[in-house]
Batch of 4 targets.
Target 1
Amino acid sequence: MNNLLTVQGRDMLVAKTSKKGGTCIEVKGCTIGGEQVVVVAGPCAVESEEILKETAFKVRGSGAAMLRGGAYKPRTSPYSFQGLGKQGLKILAKVGEEMNMPVVTEVMDSEDINLVAEYADVLQVGARNMHNFSLLRKLGKIEKPVILKRGLSATIEEWLLAAEYILAGGNSQVILCERGIRTSERWTRNTLDLSAVALVKELSHLPVMVDPSHGTGVRSLVVPMAKAAVGAGADGVMVEVHPNPEQALSDGQQSLTPRGFSLMMREIDPVARAVGRRIR
């Protein structure tokens, strides 16, 4: 399999053989790729400072290390809530600073990279943009970590090659994120491919996260899939949490309540310990 990650007789930058040991990425005291399984939590979209602050306070109390929230939302329908834009970025940065939590948010357009990087600690490339090579090249020029989500129908090789664009540009701080792929299954939003986590850990030195919220699209499946992700070797778990999911402006059906998130944290802890990792 490793010959897939060679070019002109040389190992690609993403290949495990190109670097001694796994990559660990430091983000304001959080180490992604080390012994700790880092949990990233927050609402799908930044809706208001009050909602974000309430969510951050509760997930931090349950053990979340990083705060997520979308300021720019790529939606299938042009009439769906698209995010608060720059105002959302400001809210996210403010709440993150108050809660002492690094913040993660998506960048959709290469023209917005500098703006998003001004407020966010980690920039996320969404599934729809995994093949946006112009965006990937420009993210290779910045000095902030990037979470690269797997494309909707992307093979593992295509996912790793997308990461290669960023590394080749000079930015080695890449975190891969499995978020489910599109299959013929209709009972879940996507099919969460946890075999990809174990395989990528064999092929690459890059840390891998799993997003069971988008991976399933079903609230009741998030906790069991989070446990399975940790068991499969994930270095982090990213989940959506909202104080009132039924009223969420985006993806409420897959968002945990703060109580559900607390339950998830309790249930993934023994799994982490069983595989020689820790949650906190």
Note: Residues 258-274 form the longest helix (17 residues).
Target 2
Amino acid sequence: MNMDVNAIFQIAGIGIVIAMIHTVLKQMGKEDMAHWATLIGFVVVMLMVIRMLDELFKEIKTIFLFQ
């Protein structure tokens, strides 16, 4: 349970930081860099989610295969 709450806060924190970076870069007129920052933030969050899904599927596999 504790791991789930920490992961949610990490994802939310990354989203807030990336949104601020995007806004600052867009205000400076560097929209290309702002889009790249958003894309990189999205990839980082997706890697975190994929890692958590992998752990979930391993747990489900151990439960149903009794290993």
Note: The CA atoms of residues 18 and 38 lie 6 Å apart.
Target 3
Amino acid sequence: MPSISRKGPGTKDQGQRTKSKKVVGPRSMVHGPWSRSKEHGIALMLVISAIVMLTMIAVEFAYNAQIEYRMAIRQKERLQAYYLANSAYNLTRLELKLGSQVQSRVAGAISQSGIDIGIDLSSPLCQQFPIKTALFRLLMTGETGSESPTVEGEEPPEPKPGEEVAAMMGGMSLSGLDEFLQFEGDFDSECVDESSKVDLNFIYSQNPLQPAAEGTENGYDQYKRFIMGIIGGPGNEDLIKKADVKVLEVVRNIADWIDPNEVINDFGGIEGGGEDNVYRNNAPGQMAAKNGKLSIPEDIFMVEGIKDGWWNEVSDLFTIYGITSQQGKPQINVCRAPNEVVKVLILRYTETRADLPPLKSQDIEILDQLVEAVKGGCTGAIPDKNKIAQDLDAKLLEVLKASPASGQAAQTAAGYGASGAGFADWIATQSRFFRLNLIGQVRDTVVKLTTVIDLGQGGGSDTSKWKTVYWKVE
């Protein structure tokens, strides 16, 4: 009889329960609440990163757009400022033309009447009435301010810039000016007479080895001394001393850079070796002396010893655009020239007068009287340079207490290496070259335009013969 195994109560259920139990281990924990929290954190980080990246891209895009917008605005303003400066250029040319025409007609009328009016009318119109739209706007608005009552014993307040001119021209008819000024920005002009300065390029026409009469110097050396007198004049003593400028050496370098030969030329026709010793040996990589005329004013800084620290202080006394007479002498418009230039010119002239006692640069009072005599002869629309020369000769005899040479033979002495008729051959009373400094401005954008105009011999009003010899935009 088979044996029957007996199970206790609940044996079967216990087994079933055993089979249904799940083992809880590391694998089962992945799907728990902690796992879902971690997944949510990663998603949040991804979303934040995406937002940050998109924000950075948007900011970069906006920044670049703003920069491009500002650049476009600046380019637009610069273009506007350039054309404003160009407008000043054209208007100044018009002033030069009208001024030349008026002066020619006035000179003709004075010549026919035979009357010396005694005042100088030769000043260029562009210098008498410079174009400044800011001043025109001030005149149109009339905002010169009402006169405030002054307390007895107190000085009246000084006028603000432009108020004097506005008050002086307040009664003039300015109809049409408001329509002309209907544009954005401003422009102004400055007209500088280059013919009133010392021409450096004249050195090129002088021969360093030209024989000179006994006891005198040739024209090359005379002109070098003339330039030395301008640079080292009484008004520049402190500047030259502070900058430790060796005037003799600097002027020699200027002359050697411009003159045609390739050797160093000291005074008295002495040669001091090749010019390369000054440039290529002492400053490797620098070009040798040009041995030709300066092409633009900035070329002067290639000359050894010329530094902007001191040269800029005297540069307004020099030019590279000069007038030369038919006798081969440089001519300076003494009616427009600075007094220091006229003084040195008189000193150089008196050295050619054997009938006069020596005149030194230290004779300030005498030189002032001589300059006054020269400037006093600048009368009429086109001053007579022969009259100026006669006035100077008479004043020289007076202040130096000298007697005139018989037949004025002394006036045929060499001046810059060529004989001439005296002081009249060294000067001019009409200008040929004008430098125009023009500015156009729109808000904070400024464009500077510098140009030099050659009006031709005699400074005529025929603009078809005018030439632009220099043009620079900054």
Note: Confidence is low (pLDDT under 50) at residues 143-149, 161-172, 406-415.
Target 4
Amino acid sequence: MLTDLARRFGTPLFVQVLDGIEAQVHKLSGFDVVRYAMKANPCLAVLREIRRAGAHVDCVSAGELARARAAGWTAEEITFTSDIYDHGALDAAVELGVHMNLGSPDMIEQYAERVPGGKVTLRVNPGFGHGHNAKVNTGGPASKHGIWHGDLADCIERARRAGLTVTGLHMHIGSGSDLDHLRRVAAAMVDAVRVAGKSVRVISAGGGLPTPYRPEDNPLDPAPLAAVWNEARARAEELVGHPLKVEVEPGRFLVAEGGLMLAEVRAVKSVDGAPFVLVNAGFHNLARPMLYGAFHQISILGRDGEPRRPTVVAGPLCEASDVFTQGSTGEPAPQELPTAEVGDLMCFHDTGAYGSSMSSVYNTMPIAPEVVVADGIPRLARPRQDPSAAMASEMALLQGEEGSVNP
């Protein structure tokens, strides 16, 4: 099928299998609410499948709010989480009436001015963080995210003075964290509930659930994590004297393993005796290796079982960092691959999260199309987006309505 899809839609090409999403959602049934972090993959076809599986959604921008509504979620099923709101995002959130998760103290009065008497969640930085890379660590003293745990009491009072009620608390310490650190979040949440008091009705475990990108990685069993959070819920309920809901906020956990990216080999060369393979996809398509030194298993279609050797795989962009096989500090990290030839199709695995969603038009490259597969049937979910459309709008501005060049 993959070869046929590449022939039909061209490369680079993202392919997302929808069939496993419902099972991933159901793995988190130990939580009261599963809330998808849309930034992982905002493709409408993916969103509709996640909504059909029973998950709610978390948004971080006005554009994501619009996508959530287009996918069919009601305002009651949408939360907006951020450390600021720009004017457009605040306008959209207020108009839709979605619940707000505030990550900075200054957001309190800004929201109260628009929604007097509103109910909000506060995102709390518990003082520590953890992720698969320092750049995705969202807790601790070096992180911009959330309200510092030592300032929580002041912010609760600040919200009260502004006429808001804090009904929820949220913690998210990083992406791709491990179970030991996620357990620490549950303990920190109980402390936060003790500070916030009886108005709290919902506590959120955040996201960051890891994905097995490497062959030796073990998949996360969510049951122990849910058990930890249900124990934390029980302790918190003793503090507030009423039932609490527990939410979890997965992104990559729902979609990463169902996605892949296809690219065509366009050149093969030797650099100081080492094989370099250049493909027609770059960090404008898949940014994670360049940003975090993230690992994606690479294979060559039709070459299983052939002898392998350490190989560097890179893209076409005019940047030294446009390399898919690199470590966390940019050092070479070749993968063992068969000898590639021009015209081969390379498959980059587990790209369903933060693959297409982080695409750009750097070097005036087109954004790759996305195909979704359900019940073995593929269909185009997002067409190739040609940057010439943006250039046409720029030309129109240059020419002006009357055909004269703008000053």
Note: The CA atoms of residues 364 and 391 lie 10 Å apart.
